[in-house]
Amino acid sequence: MEKFDSIRPYNESEFADAIKRITEHKYLPTVINTVFLNTNAEEYINNMKQYKTVRDFQHGFMRDAVENILKKTSTNFTYSGIENIKSGSSNMFVSNHRDIALDAAILCYVFACNNLECLEVAIGNNLLQGDFVIDIAGVNKMFKIMRSSNAKDLYRDSVLASEYMRYVINDKKESVWIAQRNGRTKDGDDKTELGVLKMFSLGNDKPFVENFEEINITPVAISYEYEPCDFYKTMELYISSFQKYVKEPGEDLRSIITGIMQPKGQINITVTPSITREELEYCDQFEKNVKFTTLAEIMDKRIYQSYKLYKTNYIAHDMLNNANTYEEFYTKEDKEFFIGYMKQGLSKLPCANEENMKDLENIFLKIYANPVNNKL
Structure pTM? Predict the structure, then answer.
């Protein structure tokens, strides 16, 4: 539909031209050599030229790329909950958000491995910088969420995004991935933002239960043993504690590359059961704002229950509380390694000094400890 042209991904008729631009772009060999070490970039590019459809590209190049990233940066990858996806259903997958690129990419990889259609993925327009990135996003079924600066534009763009997601789910019969909040969780305390749920509701004027039942919300939990960009997140939280944090030029790209290539230890992703009509009816008994708050709490509980907690989470929780509550989940050597990892990484931050190191350590430890608090 033409009304969605400003935000939608490429359609099949646009795919061939986009692949031609991508395969001829000067950045592609660098991307391939970064993701696939010691490989023949020219061979990969020639293979890419053979793709005829978006599905070919996602189940070919992108599946291989994510699989290779997982092999290089993860010691173990697990997933569960595929049985919660009903055959023939279209879902609004709402995920906690820890990494700019990988959260959605990993779920799409799981879908490809199970021969399921990959999702359409919501991405902030602030991340779509440059023709090469726009083309990669366009052939990867990514649609834009506009980061509007004023209330009037925000409402207009939210309505358009909501209508588009409903169009994908109800008319195209495909599923959507979107983060539970605007931007990544920096402190490890995952919370569904009410603004996201309210945006969902703008797509039509049906009553609350029918409105949300139509989009089939399915929470998704992703857990990393080592938090992507953990040291950068620590620095941002520290600076934000006493002044407005202003991103440097190119910071989003740096975070994307760091998140992808940083060692992450174990990774788990779990698709939880969808929100039921009964749960929506329970929410509907409250006044308007409480309806959304209650729905967010139900979604968050699904995610918390599905967290995979790792030794890093338990070590951080015990360190923050000066306790040995979870010492059964890690060894003395594990703790010493984690402390060394923390101190070495924090010492390299440009804002670090002897006076603020304790503050930085507390912020860092909370990133890892908060998932334990939430699961409790």
Answer: 0.94
Closest CA to 69 of 108, 25, 36: 36
How many other CB atoms are found less than 10 A from the CB of residue 288? Answer: 10
Tell which residue, 65, 58, 62, 84, has the closest CA to residue 269.
Answer: 84
CA end-to-end span of the chain: 46
Nearest CA-CA partner of 165 in 154, 156, 174: 174
pLDDT per position in the chain (376 positions), as tens? 789 999 999 999 999 999 999 999 998 998 888 887 667 888 889 989 999 999 999 999 899 999 999 999 999 999 999 999 988 899 999 999 999 999 999 999 999 999 998 999 999 998 888 899 999 999 999 999 998 778 899 999 999 999 999 999 999 999 999 999 998 999 999 999 999 999 999 989 999 999 999 999 999 999 999 999 999 999 999 999 999 888 888 888 889 889 999 999 999 999 999 999 999 999 999 998 999 999 999 999 999 999 999 999 999 999 999 999 999 999 999 999 999 999 999 999 999 999 999 999 999 999 999 999 999 9
Q: What residues does CATH 3.40.1130.10 cover in the chain?
A: 2-11+77-228+268-308
151, 166, 242 from 201: Cα distances, Å: 17, 10, 36
Return the closest-CA partner of residue 95 out of 75, 79, 83, 117. Answer: 79
In terms of Cα–Cα distance, which of 159, 116, 123 is closest to 9? 123
Torsion of CA 15, 20, 25, 28, to 10 degrees: 70
d(CA 319, CA 362): 9
Distance separating alpha carbons of residues 35 and 153, to the nearest angstrom: 38
Kindly indicate whether the domain formed by 2-11+77-228+268-308 is annotated with CATH number 3.40.1130.10.
yes
63 and 109 Cβ atoms separated by less than 8 Å: yes
Q: What are phi and psi of 142, to 5 degrees?
A: -100, 130
> Sheet of 120-124: strands edge to edge?
74-80, 265-271, 217-224, 92-95, 176-179, 120-124, 142-145
Angle formed by the axes of helices 131-138 and 12-23, nearest 10° = 140
Please report, for residues 152, 169, 281, 305, the alpha-carbon distance to residue 292 in angstroms, rounded to integers and kept in the order given: 22, 21, 12, 20
